[in-house]
Amino acid sequence: MVVGYDRPLETFFAQAIAIDATGEEDCVIWQGTYPGELPTPRSAIALIEHYCNVPEDLARQLETDRLATLAQADGPNQQAAKRALIIGEAEPPRPKPGG
What we know:
The chain is an alpha+beta fold. The protein contains three helices and three strands; from the N terminus they run βββααα. Helices cover 30% and strands 21% of the residues. The longest helix is centred in the last third of the chain and has 12 residues, at 76-87. The protein is flat.
């Protein structure tokens, strides 16, 4: 299980991997990969709590992690990745001639 906060996407995330009978890994949960998809710690915890014992203070820890990132800003690579992810645009929009 992995749960956390992704500052550039402004979302919490949850991932759970199960091992099948043959020893192969199978991703059973992978959410929080889109901007704002999981807006609260509880929304991420709800996805994993059926697969593991969740520490009582996990929601508080996740919110503390989110708050610790508030003063950070996206760098050029993060901005480009967000544009590509959100609107499918790899480069920043260029000004139109005459405008």
